[in-house]
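Hi all, long-time lurker, first post. I run a small reading group and we've been trying to get comfortable going from sequence to structure in the token notation. Rather than ask abstract questions, I figured I'd post a concrete chain and ask someone more experienced to write out its structure so we can walk through it together at our next meeting. Sequence below, copied exactly:
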Amino acid sequence: MNNIIKTTAPAGIVVKQPVRFGKPCIKGTRIAVTDILNLLQRGYGLNDVPTQYAGITIKDAKVALRYAARVLGKEEVLEIAA
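-- Answer (accepted) --
Happy to help. Here is the structure in token form:
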């Protein structure tokens, strides 16, 4: 049985099993979408992202946010009967 869920990542986001254990990352880097989200959660602004992660642009950060919003927008909660 194949338990792999396939999704199409937007341009700028790559998912490769050997890179960060398959977490969605900014293309050409090892910086995961979650790294950017965690930075924003700690109070940094979008303009601060490039100063915290070399090689990342504001455009990259926006792509990461769009990707996260798309993934979370598809989230489903399943209730399990007792």
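A couple of things your group might point at:
The chain has a mean pLDDT of 86.
The first strand starts at residue 13 and ends at 14.
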